[in-house]
Amino acid sequence: MTEEGETVMSESSFLYEGKAKKIYPTDDPNVVRVEYKDDATAFNGEKKGSVPGKGELNNRISALLFTYLGKRGIPHHFIRTLSATEQLVKRVNILPVEVVVRNRVAGSLARRLGLKEGSLCPSPLVEFYYKNDERGDPLITEDHIALMELASREQIRQMRERALQVNELLIELMTEKGVDLIDFKLEFGQDENGKLLLADEISPDTCRFWDRGTGKKLDKDRFRHSLGGVEDAYYEIWTRLGGEDRV
Ligand code: TMP
Ligand code: ASP
After folding, report:
1. Residue 160 CB: number of other CB atoms within 10 A?
2. Would you say 42 and 50 are in contact if contact means Cβ atoms under 8 Å apart?
3. pTM, entire model
4. Which of 128, 172, 216, 227 is most buried as measured by Cβ atoms within 10 A of its Cβ?
5. In which domain, by residue range, is 97 found?
6. Is the domain of 149 the same as that of 192?
7. How remote is the CA of residue 1 from the centroid of ligand 2, in Å?
8. pLDDT at residue 2 tops 60
């Protein structure tokens, strides 16, 4: 789940390479360039592959969703799209916590508790995971976050509150497009002034989207479970969102 990467000092090279993105420095120390890759991994890197066109689609979908959320009051890191696969974002220190919101049972929640995939959660669930590849990104409680000083109590409160706001806003948007938002993962970072910003990406790599009519999965589960048609599914999300650029 985490994007454990390499750090290099050379200016001409990247600062950090994750599983699906590379981060490069820019002339402005508070801005970095993100390059979205076609690479895909699942199950903590156990399954590896490449999905042609995924980098471009995720770059564009993420830009669109951050812009949408920003207009509705969610502070975030996105600045602007640079090219088909690249965007500029504010440099932040990512908190080592992944925040997952769930509206229906799927994935690890179904596996961990033996619940039926697709069952509706009576109200949205918020979960925290510790970003630590070695330990397989364990589910943790707010007290664990405080114990390990991964984030302050105030930051935990803000992450929960904002994650639920993002959920409401994304549900509103996706429902209009005939898509059910099953769950998603967010990451937050602190800017140079200590302000908490929504960061990383929001895309079919980090969300579960099911077609409202057919229940068809339009997200990374197609890759995780070798269902085929991964790029088509991502493209479907992009076009439903009104995406127009040629991809
Ligand atoms: P999970 O059911 O596997 O815990 O996933 C919950 C949500 O988080 C789902 O929308 C996919 C997303 N997610 C990531 O973005 N990165 C990850 O590494 C994992 C495991 C899940
Ligand atoms: N991207 C994650 C990994 O490779 C897992 C996932 O999204 O399922 O660990």
Report:
1. 15
2. no
3. 0.94
4. 128
5. 93-228
6. yes
7. 4
8. no
